[in-house]
Design goal:
147 residues, 34% helix, 3-stranded parallel beta sheet, 5 helices, alpha/beta, 3 strands
Length: 147
């Protein structure tokens, strides 16, 4: 915000836990914010929070570039591969934020915000060559137990 950017922060909206919003309010508010975002900057905790995982899913589906600040050494598989479907910059979150490390993060966020907002995945996925449908899924070719 000090650099003149509009920032949506769900924690700030909920007064850092003092003013929880009802699910029917916070879910559409978070989705609307993601729909209008130029970039998503997210801390992937260890383990990542379920809410963050949903928001990352929305961002990737909408083609919003992601700056993923990683705390731990491992990520769930779908998060580790998110760069395959949307522009993603991974950064190690330092133990202690300094002016220098914060400036590096902000630079990465600003650079990602200027990236083109389109999903990267436009053709069937390797390993799913049986179909011409997007993302390699064709229900008609799956056994009944897998539909």
């Amino acid at each position: 915000m000090d650099r003149g950017h509009a920032v949506f922060n769900a924690h700030q909206n909920e007064q850092w836990g003092r003013g929880w919003l009802a699910p029917e309010v916070c879910t559409p508010a978070d989705f609307l914010a993601m729909s209008n975002a130029d970039v998503m900057c997210v801390i992937a905790g260890d383990p990542p929070s379920p809410g963050v995982m949903v928001e990352i899913g929305w961002a990737s589906a909408l083609g919003v570039p992601i700056v993923l600040l990683q705390e731990g050494d491992s990520l769930p598989a779908l998060l580790a591969g998110i760069h395959e479907v949307t522009s993603t910059t991974r950064c190690r979150l330092p133990q202690e934020l300094t002016e220098e490390s914060l400036a590096d993060i902000l630079t990465a966020v600003e650079k990602a915000a200027s990236a083109q907002r389109t999903p990267r995945l436009t053709e069937p996925v390797a390993g799913y060559p049986k179909t011409s449908l997007p993302y390699g899924y064709e229900a008609a070719e799956q056994p009944i137990g897998h539909v």
